Amino acid sequence: MFEVIGERINTSRKLVQAAVAERDAEYIINDVKKQQKVGASFIDVNAGARIGHEEEDMRWLLDTIQPFCAIPLALDSPDPAVLEMAFSMVDQTPMVNSISLEKERFDAMMPFLDGKECKIIALCMDDAGMPESSKDILGRAKNLIKELNGVGIITANIYVDPLVQPISTNSNKGIMVLDAVRAIKAEFPEVHITGGLSNISYGLPQRHIINRTFVALMMDAGMDSAIIDPLDKKIMATIQTADMLLGNDQFCMEYLKGVRSGTIES
Amino acid sequence: MTDFNAMTDALVSCDAPTLTNLVNDALAADTPAQDILNKGLIASMDIVGEKMESGDMFIPEVLMAAQAMGSCVEILKPLLGEGEGASGASVLIGTVKGDLHDIGKNLVAMMMESAGLEIHNLGVDIAPEDFVAEIKKKKAQIVCLSALLTTTMPAMKQTVDAIVESGLRDQVKIMVGGAPVTQAFADEIGADGFAADAGSASKMVKSFIN
């Protein structure tokens, strides 16, 4: 099943930041309920934007969200202290967003992850910057998987983010990441592939059609999760339809259910 | 009389062969290389920047236009006298410490370079003290800081603070940019300007110089 990580609870979004600053629980709860209703698998929670307030904001958000949330959370912070606190507050095995190969981040995250039961998003980023070829992405993914396996995280709990880059700056950026995903899945069939998609369309007009077309291609390559806005009806419909076309929807039941409920339209 | 408008049309339509022909024709008609560069190519690239800012041109087109312009500058280079190419202003640009993103920053650098400025692109993950050292070394008048992450925005403030402490603040204008950066943030950390895209960044630098 394709897993959507709902990206809406993020204090870098204006309305969320205002709700968090004013401790407007109703706004946050409603948003989380909506994301669950349309089929999110995880609710990402990022409290990082109000500089100096991350820990208290994260604590308040988790306190607010937990009682109304039936699905697991993705704890989104670069700070192991904030993550440690958040980890102790959740009542379902969470996802942690994220680790990368950047030395400072990697060294901070590994002791936190050691022996913990969680899912982890692994960014193919290292101190040299963004990856520059599909081989480069594969190499970084291999490294991350090996290191994470070493601290007890099984491959099936790892969500590799190959880092989608703007096609506007180089026409090969689409095929580069698609090839990388195929190569990673060939070597590690159990690993998940996730990530944000909207980077692909940066710098171009009519971005949504690029994002939607790209998610379908990425799913064929092996992407089985994405960090997106689940209230974007059109991308959710594309994902569900692509899932059916890739043979993951027996008797097309989910597709038909989506059409009847009005979530999928031509 | 050289028709510089035709060069603008060619550049805006990303038509490298036509632009090259126009430059060669202008040279054949004894138009000074310096005029072709300033009134033809740089002026045209300014219009490309404006079109980018207004959403009439997009990144791939701007890249193509810059490439076309670059190949024409190569034709002119041997004909330009010493110091005739650049405007004389030295501009530093880099992504702040802890941040490895460079796509936006490189676009800004490219637009400024096409505008005839002397650009020193320091790269990514640049520490405040390294910005300070480079300001001295390159005798910079403008410093452009880039950050793409909310987690690295504080490094912009640290860089501004380091420039203040070094006593160099009065010699430079500081500009900031990057997806999460706003005018309010620029004001808060004491930067001189904020630009939302490469076109307006390039325009702002010129306004600081003039």
TrEMBL record, chain A:
Keyword tags: Cobalamin, Cobalt, Metal-binding, Methyltransferase, Transferase
Q: Read off the Gene3D superfamilies from this record.
A: Dihydropteroate synthase-like
Pinpoint the Pterin-binding domain residues.
2-246
**Cellular component, GO annotation:** cytosol
Asked whether the keyword Translocase is assigned, the reply is: no
User: Which example biological process does GO assign this protein?
Assistant: homocysteine metabolic process
InterPro entries from the UniProt entry: Dihydropteroate_synth-like_sf, Met_Synthase/Corrinoid, Pterin-binding_dom
Annotated TM spans = none
Recall the GO molecular function terms of this protein's record. cobalamin binding; metal ion binding; methionine synthase activity
One short Pfam family name for this protein? Answer: Pterin_bind
Instruction: Say which family it is in.
Output: Belongs to the vitamin-B12 dependent methionine synthase family.
- NCBIfam families hit by this protein: PRK07535.1
Q: What is this protein called?
A: 5-methyltetrahydrofolate--homocysteine methyltransferase
UniProtKB/TrEMBL annotation, chain B:
B12-binding N-terminal domain span: 1-88
Q: Name one GO molecular function term.
A: cobalamin binding
One Pfam short name: B12-binding
Sorted alphabetically, the Gene Ontology BP terms of this entry are: homocysteine metabolic process; methylation; tetrahydrofolate metabolic process
Name the UniProt key words of this record, in alphabetical order.
Cobalt, Metal-binding, Methyltransferase, Transferase
Ranges where the B12-binding domain occurs? 88-210
> Which Gene Ontology cellular component terms are annotated?
cytosol
Superkingdom field: Bacteria
Q: Which family does it belong to?
A: Belongs to the methylamine corrinoid protein family.
Please identify the protein, giving its name as recorded. Answer: 5-methyltetrahydrofolate--homocysteine methyltransferase
The organism of origin for this protein: Desulfocicer vacuolatum DSM 3385
